[in-house]
Design a protein that fits this description.
single chain, alpha/beta, Rossmann fold, Pantoate--beta-alanine Ligase, Chain: A,domain 2, 2 domains, 6-stranded parallel sheet, 3-stranded antiparallel sheet, about 40% helix, binds adenosine monophosphate
Length: about 280
């Protein structure tokens, strides 16, 4: 596995690979790798000649009162895990190399961001899109791999790729979970012991909501209210949102039909957890 910290060096390396016709799969991450990240790598390795992973905790996507400084990091262990998983090229730039110029642009996402995490984290997706545009240009991948756990991110990246005509295929990968259903997340390490026991109720709540829909419930308010009560009863977390929307457009539903997402965010003491389920509903 080759490791690069300089974007210029990586760009040169990628150009050499592309000049001999190699296809490139790209897995952008913020590190502190777990099974979820490694699932994306597994898919990329299966579908491309070369898999490039980036590890970069992007300051631009964290709000002033968020956990940028406290975000968990373990670059040494990440290198071992990435190599074991089959990553060919690991890109670990530092902030001064990624943002080596004054900010001359502010990319602002206008659609798909006025709800869910976009609403509670103003500017978050502007930062995500800015770093992804840079990374897409540096890496020039054929395919990019993102996890459905961050479903709004997938929705925004889908829009980004289409709007800016990136010749890239977006591959959405199912959420990897712990045995008890908790979605794997780098932030899970910040749950207290009690909160860790409560956290699987997020997924249980989503499954319950899904079940209601499958059994014919078509009232959005009743479903979200039921989940609200269930989460309040079973966890000490503070509910940020529970929403049922169309996917990937993330519009309010006049009727529960077609591809829909039921999404949830709960703030625990030090970790804000998100999860969702996506289902297709017939008439
Ligand atoms: P992060 O390092 O948290 O920014 O995540 C990097 C990528 O891994 C994103 O595309 C995430 O959606 C994806 N990811 C994170 N957790 C999971 C998970 N539990 N299952 C599948 N993909 C995940």
């Amino acid at each position: 596995m080759d490791i690069f910290t300089s974007k210029m060096d990586l760009q040169r390396h990628v150009q050499a690979l592309k000049s001999v016709g190699k296809t490139i799969g790209f897995v952008p991450t913020m590190g502190f790798l777990h099974e979820g990240h490694l699932k994306l790598v597994e898919r990329s390795v299966a579908e491309n000649d070369i898999t490039i992973m980036s590890i970069f905790v992007n300051p631009l996507q964290f709000g002033p009162n968020e956990d940028y400084d406290a975000y968990p990091r373990n670059p040494d262990k990440d290198q071992v895990l990435a190599k074991q998983a089959g990553v060919d090229v690991l890109f670990m730039p530092d902030s001064s190399d990624m943002y080596d110029q004054e900010h001359a642009f502010h990319i602002h996402v206008l659609q798909r961001t006025d709800r869910l995490c976009g609403k509670s984290r103003p500017g978050h997706f502007d930062g995500v899109v800015t770093i992804l545009m840079k990374l897409f240009h540096i890496v020039g991948p054929n395919r990019v791999y993102f996890g459905l756990k961050d479903a709004q991110q997938i929705s925004v990246v889908d829009s980004l790729i289409n709007y800016f005509d990136f010749p890239i295929e977006l591959v959405a990968v199912e959420t990897v979970r712990e045995q008890d259903g908790l979605a794997r997340s780098s932030r899970n390490v910040y749950l207290t012991n009690l909160e860790r026991k409560e956290a699987p109720y997020l997924y249980k709540a989503l499954k319950m909501g899904e079940q209601q829909i499958l059994q014919g419930e078509r009232n959005v308010e009743r479903i979200t209210q039921m989940i609200h009560e269930y989460i309040e009863k079973n966890t000490s977390g503070k509910i940020d949102y529970i929403e049922l929307l169309s996917f990937p457009e993330l519009r309010s539903l006049s009727s529960i039909q077609g591809k829909v997402i039921l999404a949830i965010a709960v703030q625990f003491t030090r970790a804000r957890l998100i999860d969702n389920t996506i289902l297709t509903v017939g008439n």
